[in-house]
């Protein structure tokens, strides 16, 4: 009897983990009018938003919304959380020295603090953080978070870039919602420091927090993300934009931000009346 009860509780626990790490698409409103923003930027992709006040979900391209892709640079959210929680990162001002290797992105070629590295998406900084965290500890945390497919492969400093680790837009949405409300299994200080790092715009009408990400899938398609929330009148709305293109000439960062801000504007944001 005890074994049966333990087994049942285990099933319930994991079902709960899955439910809170993503947002149900069963009650989603599909809005195909948002397609024009992707077409204008010559990419395919999806957008999903959750209104916290009423639980309504708005989705464009439901199939892509529930398909897993590399998290790319958006994994810096998780890497920062684990780094801070384990003490590998002492605080947002902790400096990791530049290794002296010249990279194409000049913003990475210097000593950086965590908050600076987060803003400029420094791969070398966060690769060093991951190495200091270590494979076993990293795997333990990804399992605890039920983050995407939880697969880190054998390379501790590149699994979020090389398509071992994958996550869907729907799962990303659930994750940032939990981060916003201090519902992740980290100290409140840890979650607050990461939320602070994600803040991009803050004025009397709204605050906008997000992390961008870019990478490539197994077929060499460029992948781009914008993951975060917008808050007006103390009402948070969580959103994820994911874009994909086979055209290497497209500026993915510009495209994903153009799409995100265009959609948010169409949905009535940036005016302070939501």
CATH class categorisation: Alpha Beta
Radius of gyration: 19 Å
**How do the helices and strands follow one another from N- to C-terminus?**
HEHEEHEHEEHHHEHHEEEEH
Summarize model confidence as the mean pLDDT. 92
Backbone structural class: alpha+beta
Low-confidence stretches: 1-21
The name CATH uses for the topology is: Beta-lactamase
**What is the count of structural domains?**
1
Broad shape: globular
CATH superfamily: DD-peptidase/beta-lactamase superfamily
Describe the largest sheet: 7 strands, mixed
Could you tell me the strand content as a percent range?
15-25%
Helix content: 25-40%
The strand count comes to 11
Structural account:
With 274 residues, the chain is an alpha+beta fold. The protein has one domain: DD-peptidase/beta-lactamase superfamily (Beta-lactamase). 39% of the residues lie in helices and 22% in strands. The protein has ten helices and eleven strands. Strand 2 and strand 3 form a beta hairpin. Helix 4 crosses helix 6 and helix 4 runs antiparallel to helix 9. The radius of gyration is 19 Å and the shape is globular.
Brief rundown of the structure:
Helices cover 39% and strands 22% of the residues.
